[in-house]
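Q: Given only this backbone (151 positions), what sequence would you predict?
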């Protein structure tokens, strides 16, 4: 892991298992616009944020209560010059106990300051993790991108 990769850490009073289950509930904290499965090794899912962001993920590492890693298999970020900037990057959630709390270390490997998406994408990740995922873990209700109907 490079120091350049976008990383954020937060602590919470719930168990590692509760945190793990919430992360795997992508529809509950990131976007309701999801197709596929996001719970087990080799599961694949797609997310959409209107016409602005599409990405496909594959779960390539799953250790219950400890770690989840997604490989971005495809991406179309229409607000960037290089619309496939996320393709081939990895999204990692490390879950561990520290001082009677559960900590989550999120790292988007490949989301680095030198790429065009860094500022917008790191700000979006911060919101979805610090506000939406935390809310889902604590209260059972996150703040995902709402479901959009097809035109």
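A: Predicted residues:
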């Amino acid at each position: 892991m490079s120091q350049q990769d976008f990383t954020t850490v937060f602590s919470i009073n719930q168990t590692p298992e509760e945190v793990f289950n919430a992360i795997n509930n992508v529809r509950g904290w990131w976007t309701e616009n999801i197709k596929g499965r996001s719970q087990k090794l080799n599961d694949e899912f797609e997310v959409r944020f209107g016409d602005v962001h599409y990405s496909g993920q594959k779960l390539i590492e799953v250790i219950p209560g400890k770690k989840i890693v997604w490989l971005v298999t495809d991406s179309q970020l229409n607000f960037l010059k290089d619309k496939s900037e996320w393709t081939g990057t990895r999204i990692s959630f490390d879950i561990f106990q520290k001082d009677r709390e559960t900590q989550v270390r999120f790292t988007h490997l490949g989301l680095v300051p030198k790429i065009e998406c860094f500022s917008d994408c790191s700000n979006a990740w911060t919101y979805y993790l610090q506000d939406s995922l935390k809310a889902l873990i604590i209260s059972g209700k996150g703040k995902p991108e709402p479901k959009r109907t097809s035109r």
